Every structure is written in structure tokens, then in C-alpha cells.
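Class, discuss our next protein.
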Amino acid sequence: MLKRRRTQKLKRNVIYSTATRRRVMLRKLHKKIIWRRRMFAMQQMAETEIEPIAS
């Protein structure tokens, strides 16, 4: 049981060990980060637009 689990885990790691897979995963991660930053920036801009009108 333990041995089979270990080989499955190794196989999973092998899938991501190729250069192209690593690059794809990094790109996906990077896209998420960029998206999150853009959303935060838009939120900040919305807050600054609201403040002068309210006061």
C-alpha cells in the first residue's frame, strides 16, 4: 500500500519536472498574481474616486 502511493507521487512529480510543464505552471501562477494586483489597483482607484465626492 505504502509503496504504491509513493510511486504515484513520484509519477505526479515526473509530469511537472519537464521544462515546458514548469514554464506553463509558472505562467499560470504569474497570471494569477498579475490579476490580483490589477484588482487591488482598481479597488484603490475606486476608493480614491469616492473620497473627494463624499467630502
Q: What stands out?
A: The helical segments are 2-17, 19-54. Residues 19-54 form the longest helix (36 residues). The radius of gyration is 21 Å.
